[in-house]
Design a protein that fits this description.
Chain A: It holds the Pfam family WD40_Gbeta. The complex is a heterodimer of chains A (353) and B (438). With 353 residues, chain A is mainly β. Chain A is built from 3 helices and 28 strands. Chain B has 3 domains: 84 residues, Arc Repressor Mutant, subunit A (Orthogonal Bundle), CATH 1.10.10.10; 71 residues, Methyltransferase, Methionine Synthase (B12-binding Domains), Chain A, domain 1, CATH 1.10.1240.60; 152 residues, Orthogonal Bundle (Regulator of G-protein Signalling 4, domain 2), CATH 1.10.167. Helices cover 52% and strands 5% of the residues of chain B. In chain B, helix 16 packs antiparallel against helix 17. The chains are: A mainly beta (353), B mainly alpha (438).
Amino acid sequence: MATDGLHENQTLASLKSEAESLKGKLEEERAKLHDVELHQVAERVEALGQFVMKTRRTLKGHGNKVLCMDWCKDKRRIVSSSQDGKVIVWDSFTTNKEHAVTMPCTWVMACAYAPSGCAIACGGLDNKCSVYPLTFDKNENMAAKKKSVAMHTNYLSACSFTNSDMQILTASGDGTCALWDVESGQLLQSFHGHGADVLCLDLAPSETGNTFVSGGCDKKAMVWDMRSGQCVQAFETHESDINSVRYYPSGDAFASGSDDATCRLYDLRADREVAVYSKDSIIFGASSVDFSLSGRLLFAGYNDYTINVWDVLKGSRVSILFGHENRVSTLRVSPDGTAFCSGSWDHTLRVWA
Amino acid sequence: MERVVVSMQDPDQGVKTRSQRLFITVIPHTAAGGDVVAWLIRKYCISEEEALHLGTLLVQHGYLYSLREPRSLVLRPDDTPYRFQVRCRGSAIYLTKKNIRKQGALVGHEKEHYDQLHRKINHTWDLVVMQAREQLRAAKQRRKGDRLVIACQEQTYWLVNRPPPGVPSVLEQGPERSSCTAGGVQMTKNTEFYKQEMERCRKALTRARVKSSVCLEAYLKFSSQRGPHDPMMSGCLPSNPWVTDDDSYWTFNAPSVAVPTKLRVERWAFSFQELLEDPVGRGHFMDFLGTEFSAENLSFWEACEGLRHGEQAQVRAAVDAIYQQFLAPGAARWVNIDSRTMERTLEGLRQPHRYVLDEAQLHIYMLMKKDSYPRFLKSAAYRDLLAEAVVPPEAKRRVFPFMRKPPHANPSPALLPASHSGEPVTAASGPECGDGGT
């Protein structure tokens, strides 16, 4: 660039302050088109009635903290992973365990079910993401067919298959996200831009299916173009680590949950934060968030062992769910929206409906 | 949490404290468990259940300790007296006393902790030593009340910080994270990092934005349209499987069911994406395109999806196959792309990669979305589908719980024949589960 020569002698500090002032200008621009608040617009909407959700299934079997879970597209099977390295596949409707594998590492913080339902992916302190084809063959050892797909230089915090069993997206404590080809383990694209550990990611449900959002310890949520590896949008309004990000069902927005005890909603077209879900009595961080099918409800699991249910439009809390006896570490709504599953450091998973 | 505890101890607005009679001694500055709960309810406008939960967390983290049963880390909503733990200083005094008593013979982890504390509260360290000495000297003359308080205080402190084996510790953390605030930065924030940040900001400044009012209205519209289709908002027919243990809902809504439900057919009209993502919807749309002699458009789109999400090693072969079938002059299922897009696509085919057909694919997608899709929704075929769609009857409430059958097992997708696992799976096709759900 023509200006490179000018900047050559600038110190790091002056670069940093220049970046800060640019960010300030960006916030000003974003504010110009902000003509109304969400809760104002939502005044016309009917308030939600009495909300009753109970634990319908409790899955016991992990010997240690449950760290992550994911649903199978069949709406009833789930995969879960824990601190002691165990990864279990359950039919949560019958509560039967169907598969179990022990990873060679502890703190398996990420796991995902393949779209076909025929494989699972997981990883954690081993800095890798491995794919296990699911087999019911008594003579086959699941660990034998394991494929090592992703290699990071720090722990794996999140992973997700894209639209097929052939590609995996990963997020890592090394500050990057990456897209991998499952069969060959080839790195297809890497995403650099976070200033600290990346803790979570979610794929956009858009029709042209090309973007995803990630959240990290740098308090930033970043939206990426999967093709080019470029960050197309970034949001920095949280006051602490972002533990979880999830797209709103229409794909036009996403929610985030953070250690600052708030959840926030960011609109991609308006390019700004449009709602904050918080309460003075909620003082522990939110570890995981997900929307109900219509996007009206936001479920958030917290480190104070509870799950808070928020009215996305009105910004108020609809309900608080007790039950877990330790931190809620992971939470996902089922693919058909009939229930959601929460995993906790109390070694159990619960399905609520 | 500190914020909550500080406001609780506020002399005007905080929890009422009093001197509490305990057996024959009198302890000053105690608060009854019930008062703590009442204060939390008032201050944060929460229910009693939530206040109890929050209060118990404060006890578990050592901010409050019980004078009656210090080993029980629960907040009791009665007249059980509690006191506020003096953070940091309490444990510093304890360890300093031990240090003085045993002439500096603190054990390993205690020494470490001692040093850590020393660093943390350096400026008040003299105060700590003074207090420790004072406490030791006065120990013999210690009033029974004070001794009781200190014993409870210390017991709680160690219960929280060094839980006995088998008891989960509230202070446990996940694996270490590096963050900006902790100062443990893994990524060097070098000039490159800031230059990239500024470049992103500059690009973002020129971005086209939409007014908030427009964006937010869209949420209202989306939520009200989808509300009846959201089981958590509107229930589901015949019943929610998780509530009644009856999985007929899944049978009625199986991925490739013969007769779809009314709600499902309605959803196909919400968006083109919704239609394509449903294998049944997509199948009917393909049939409709067949009647208009444009089915190759959808087939082309599907083939491109397969390329984009397929195996890396198959990319070249897939591109070739698609070109031969859909793009080459005289191709069997030639698709009509505008000349400019075709030119650029052919150019790109010299260096095939998985995104090389993106432009052509998008062109055909938009063609179907703007042209064929609206016609499909107005067609007799769609009207008939709506008319024939089934509305499952609501399950009769079972009066006697013991009449419920145990939930059915059903075959795992992983048990299906091998043909499913090898091929690239496109967005809409899912495992064929639930069809034989009996």
